[in-house]
What does this fold into?
Amino acid sequence: MALRSPGYPLRVYGIDFSGAAQAGEKIWIAEGVIEGMTLRIEACYRGADLPGSGPGRERCLPALRDFIGDGEAGVFGLDFPFGLPRALVKENTWEDFVLSFPDHYCDPEAFRDACRTAAGGSEWKRITDQESRAPFSPYNIRLYRQTYFGVQSVLAPLVREGAACVLPMQAALPGRPWLMEICPASTLKREHLYMPYKGKSREHYQARARILEAIEEKTLLSAPAPLQSTILDDPGGDALDSVVAAFAVFRTLCHPDGFGVGSNDAYALEGYVYV
It folds into this structure.
């Protein structure tokens, strides 16, 4: 199995991302380690708890970027779009698109307005969004801030510094962090676990518990009771989403055939959602 290959990363991070002003309170990170053919979740915490971070976006996103680029090699699953539909990309390569992104858009609103104008007011999806059954276009009203700040504040600096490999647009090089785009909703749909689980009611809590139990049965060793409580007690479901992200990454590592794509493939320019 590829999981046993020399240089293959054994640490997995699922990151439920946010572009909100208080991003440090909304971002959750699940850390896991691969043991044999299972994934053991060791920690789950907010972005504000990262070294040098804080509740506000202006502190949390640089801290998250440093956490990814300066830490030990691992695989990071992040739930924001890594690209746009081909028709909205002026550059010839994904790397050029990412590196020029901060120069094209001064803020999230300018980004969304430019996309909507170019699309004639429509909300286009990428090929991978359609295939993975992702719920929104990258510049949808519910997602555009995540896309903007994810590309502008996380991907662009890491790509510029050569501090990470962004799959499948870049080669997965040993010794560097690997980044994958994931979508918890798409993963839950694939696993037939998509149900209302974000909320404070008892029914929402029970739904989170069912989802976590089902995922543990598939790939994870049982988490300690305090860690399970941390995951289930978050009413927004963001903590659970970070675990779902880690699960999606782990499953991809077990079946890594889709890591690379051809230079003419739509994924190479638009990005790819690993479910």
Strands lie at 11-16, 28-35, 38-46, 75-78, 165-166, 178-182, 273-274. The first strand starts at residue 11 and ends at 16. Residues 2-274 form one domain. The chain has a mean pLDDT of 93.
